[in-house]
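Closing statement on the tryptophan sub-project.
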Amino acid sequence: MRILTGIQPSGKLHWGNYFGAMKSMFDLQNKGENFMFIANFHAMTTVRDGAALREATKEVALDYLACGLDPAKTVMYRQSDVPEVQELAWYLSCLTPMGLLERCHSYKDKMAHGFEATHGLFAYPVLMAADILIMNSDLVPVGKDQKQHLEVTRDLAQKFNNAYGEIFTLPDAYIPETVATIPGTDGQKMSKSYHNTIELFDPSVKKKVMSIVTDSQPMEAKKEPDGNSIYELYKLFATPDEVAEMAAAFRAGGYGYGTAKKALLAAYHRLFDPFKARRDELVKDPDMLEDILRDGARRARERAAVQMDKVRKAVGL
Ligand code: ADP
Ligand code: TRP
């Protein structure tokens, strides 16, 4: 089985990215042939600062390595190091109905957030389909918001196969239900567009955890934990026994939100402090990071070449 995922280097990664996207990729690391790429072409739809893009690309690579990506098991590469994806995106573009892209939520959402309606933003799902299909991927771990893009990918693979013969596998999204939507500090979906994120290695993590919005029930009140952001976030970090203990404490009454926030902070540190220590080591050796990315690019291109050979023949080149 071939497993592939990508993430845009368009800002610092946050808890939503970790539990919604990164962790499922790490969990699948022993299950097949793995690819993870940093979608720097995609990030150009919103990032217009070259130096910032270059820096964010490295930061994402460091975050993945620090949190659990093993380069011996997963091929990690920069999207731009496999330029053939742009070529494949063109072939797919020629088969993509405008209406299919017009229906995409993420494009409409970006418009609603005031982004300029560029061709890049509009054609984004076609490039994403190329990323996936060029590796002939079977499984794509992503967050729930990417589900529609996977449907577009399957659609385009099918259209291509109908026109030119069975070349592409139809990939499946991998979206574990438990981590479908991670809440941010204000209770809505954690997202950098909503300014409610807690970053992976946030220097102000304590302040942000303490600022998570709660209702104003007094400490003595018996409280329902389900749907409460602190409890929902705690579930991601804590063991099942610890989660059951917090739920019981809320329901019994006499357990305040401040105490729950402290428990969440401690559980965060337990998981992330070792990642931080590893990251601090990795930062000291920029050559090693570059070597990993170059080696990843070489292996990814080798795989892409197999697919592109078939594709070029099929389309008549
Ligand atoms: P953001 O919303 O902060 O811009 P992205 O859209 O770049 O984040 O998301 C990158 C990946 O992380 C995607 O696979 C997405 O589904 C996942 N992800 C982001 N935020 C969340 C969240 N709050 N809950 C679950 N998954 C998330
Ligand atoms: N669209 C994805 C996101 O915003 C990033 C991405 C680009 C991707 N190409 C991909 C994810 C291919 C999985 C597979 O998070």
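The chain has 13 helices and five strands. With this model delivered, the sub-project is considered complete and its resources will be redirected to Aim 3.
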